[in-house]
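thought: fold this chain, then report.
action: predict
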Amino acid sequence: MIKEIGIGGAAALMVILLVQGVNVMPLIFLVGILGFLYFFAGSRSATKNFVSAGDRGGSSISFSSIGGQETAKKELMEALDFVRDQKLIHKMGIRPLKGILLIGPPGTGKTLLAKAAANYTQSAFLSTSGSEFVEMYAGVGAQRVRQIFREAVKQAEKLKKSSAVIFIDEIDILGGKRGSHSSHLEYDQTLNQLLVEMDGIDVKDKVKILLIAATNRVDMLDPALIRPGRFDRTVNVDLPDLEGRMQILLLHTKNKPLDPEVDLKAVARDSFGFSGAHLESVANEAAILAMREGSETITSYYFSDAIEKVMMGERLERRPDEEQLWRIAVHETGHALLSEEIRPGSVSSITTTSRGRALGYMRQTPDKESYLYTREYLEGQMAVLLAGSKAEELTLGNRSTGASNDFQQAVKLARQIITSGMSSLGVICMDNVPGKILYESMQELIKSQEARVEETLQKYLGIIKDIAGVLVKNEKINGDYLRQQMEAQRKKLNPPA
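observation:
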């Protein structure tokens, strides 16, 4: 509308100037140049952010170079076999796949899987992000959708390939539910154009196009986008398990000089909950730390430090004064004692080194990969969280603000117990529970664990200060030292007959 008004106004101005006898040829020449530049810039902006692997003959990433996602790879390859075997598709009357949706947390390898898919199907590969399609100017997003599909065909023809893969990361920005953006209809118009383009993919096309999209917010996608006939396959790309983390570490350390004593399985066990991107960073940071200290090989010490850096952040230069450092040591010792009491062998290390927002921390090692949690497990984790402040209270006579985050996490665990139907309230709907009853139930769970923590720590009051003293002096102790001290205290309290 604005464009039409502008053109009409310019034409009217030209007529007025002609009537008045003004030479308008220079003005027409200038407008022509500006129009050409505008068109050129618009066409460039429509494609400038579409990253193509076409000039290199497609993606060079293969499925064999991706570790820790065996289930996702198998599911994706089965779907891609329909793209590879065109003759069988025609014979069986199978409609070609139009879209594959990759769902999973950030850093799990969704982009790598899309590149490997292009390589597996010998297709041209174009990559972009959902945010590149949305602009404040009406119609630009729809234009860019049309442009990337045209560009995919052009790249495939240039490379003499019969198929092309378009990868759109963060598809939730482009494909969000229509009507959820009340400010303007640009989002909806862009999504509508994407739906039209996907519907236009046909088995008779000279270049077969497969759209692969990735998101970690599938709940935000418009139902029309993820229905069968558009995104025909949904592949979950989850965080890797222990074996998966081991495979990823092997891939990222094969070009690094590892010390013979390095146990990558132990590194994988210590990196519970890490994505593939996290693990690549761990391997890289370990190599950087070894290089800084002039070591010719990467030892377990560097891997341990790298895990802490990736998990918590860079080591901070600031150092608390002696009084605060002593309180931090007591606090972290309390966490560690409870963790070891509840689940022997769980403590990996304790440190008073400040990293990120943490003044100190205790690192646990899970004994197994868990996907479901019992009430006993959640209560145990709650007790570990509460043990830091309770150790301060029993040893120093008061608490500090350092436990505020622990308390928030403990409250979340208490709520999780209630919402899962494992509390005295039974199976409930949280929307129908009065706030007072919910608060009282959560307090009941927390207070019971506080009593448990106090009873446990009373047995180890004699060694809390000893362990904290070593921690202040050395900054870090491992779980083995803690277990030795606890065993000595148990024998002292319960001497053999």
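thought: worth noting. The chain is about 55% helix and 10% strand.
final: tokens above.
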